[in-house]
Amino acid sequence: MRPLRIGVFAFFSLMGSITCLASPPASPPKVIIDTDFNTISDDGQVAVMAAQLFAQGTIDLLGFTIASGNQWRDQEVSDCLKAVERLGIENRVKVYVGSQYPILHDYKDYLYEQQLFGPPIDYVGAYSQPQPNPKKLVPPPDGFATHTRPAKTNAVDFIINTIHRYPHEVTILEIAPPTNLGLAFRKDPTIIPLIKQIVTMAGQIFVPGNAYLDNAEFNWWFDPEATQIVLRAAVPHFVIPLDCTNTIPLTKEVFEQVAQHQPQTIITKLYTQAYAPFFGSGPPPYPLYIWDTNALAYFVHPEFATDTRGIWIDIHNTFDPNYGKSVPYTSDPFPTIGLLQQSQVIFAINNAAFYAFYVDLLTRPVPVKFVHPPPMDELDE
User: Fold this and answer.
1) What pLDDT, in 10s, does the model give residues 169-220?
2) Backbone dihedral region for residue 139 (phi beyond 0: left; psi -120 to 50: alpha; all else: beta)
3) C-alpha–C-alpha distance, residues 170 and 97, integer Å
């Protein structure tokens, strides 16, 4: 895809229009972010951007629920606790501990996978190492959280309780393997018709994957069984797959707009530290795209989508080299039984509008500045 090239005047004019588009609604949409968290990669960036949108009253951020994926769960929880402190939202937005393991595809299954089908040629997230000792967590560059602890309620129960409390109001922003959501649907199926929508960055429709043997996309490969539970649930689904994110590279121009922004913040410093190796003199470690932040952008700005198609998606959960691969249909293959649900699949977005949204939110002051401080939510401690 052609790299983004925006002149200074055009870029800031566009940023102004995006700010207008993101002006606070009368009742901001409620969202739970289900994440396999990391400090400043795509999940961490979603947290930064969502915190800024929460502070300006554009969204009502109800909580972060954590499941293993990019890292093992306990490391992700630790990183997310530091993130809410860093962003200044720790008294408003809680972190809920979720699933350590997928429903079936645990670490031993992954080792068995390698015995049968060979070593990985692409990303395997947490499975790049055995589950570490929880007492040997790695601190973020700016240290562990100092005063924030996880919520007492677990992630699955938090999802269930919140959907019942706000029927037809809550969006699940699913940017992790959907283990927590699959378990919530199994534990209390009555929440399924009460969910407003699920917006997810996951899957591959007509392109190769990016996990293990490159047949499946990572989030759905990590927990195919939970994915199937969620995809087959009668909830409005909006899916941003690799088909879309493969067209949204992190270009040098966009990187520099974040890294060189003045004044610097702890976020822009962490971002620079993480991504500078991709833009040095040598070849990048791997092709760099922008993934999960696209799901947040679509949630706030669905008008960014330029190519949306109705696709029925199932998941390949037979234990073979295609385990976790999306199985798309352009029409319902089982119309008489209602087995599959039609998802709205976003194949392309307005890249210029997205990049402006992305840079703006990543470069705002930190801790976030609340326009109208929201009341404390006393649902869970």
Assistant:
1) 999 999 999 999 999 999 999 999 999 999 999 999 999 999 999 999 999 9
2) beta
3) 19
Provide the pLDDT confidence category of residue 285 given band limits of 50, 70 and 90: confident
Q: Cα 219 from chain centroid?
A: 9
Cβ neighbours around 342 below 10 Å, total: 15
Domain assignment present for 149: yes
The DSSP 8-state label assigned to residue 194 in this structure reads G
CATH number, position 112: 3.90.245.10
Q: Give the pLDDT confidence of 37-77 residue by residue, as tens digits.
A: 999 999 999 999 999 999 999 999 999 999 999 999 999 99
Contact 238, 346 (CB under 8 A): yes
Residue range of the domain that includes 315: 29-362
Q: Is 295 exposed, middle or buried (0-12, 13-18, 19+ CB in 10 A)?
A: buried
Given a contact cutoff of 8 angstroms between Cβ atoms, the answer to whether 341 and 331 are in contact is no
Of 315, 312, 318, which Cα lies nearest the Cα of 333? Answer: 312
258 vs 4, 6, 60, 65, 250, CA distance in Å?
14, 14, 25, 27, 11
Residue 300 has pLDDT above 60, yes or no: yes
Nearest to 368 by CA among 61, 161, 121: 61
**Angstrom distance (rounded) from CA 168 to CA 284:** 44
Q: How many domains does the chain have?
A: 1
Q: Tell me, yes or no, whether 251 lies in a domain.
A: yes
- Mean pLDDT, the chain, rounded, equals 93
Assess if residue 11 is contained within a domain.
no
Bond before 367 cis per omega within 30 degrees: yes
pLDDT at residue number 282: 75
Q: Coil, strand or helix: which one is 377? A: coil
Where are the alpha helices (H) located in 189-330, listed in sequence order?
218-222, 224-231, 242-245, 252-259, 266-275, 293-300
Q: Which two tokens stand for residue 152?
A: 């007492």
CA 184 – CA 186 distance, rounded (Å) = 5
- 8 Å CB contact between 39 and 270: yes
Run of H or E residues at 170 = strand 170-175
* Of 147 and 9, the one with more pLDDT: 147
Residue 268 located in a structural domain: yes
- Name the token pair of 375: 């009341």
Q: What is the pTM assigned to this prediction?
A: 0.92
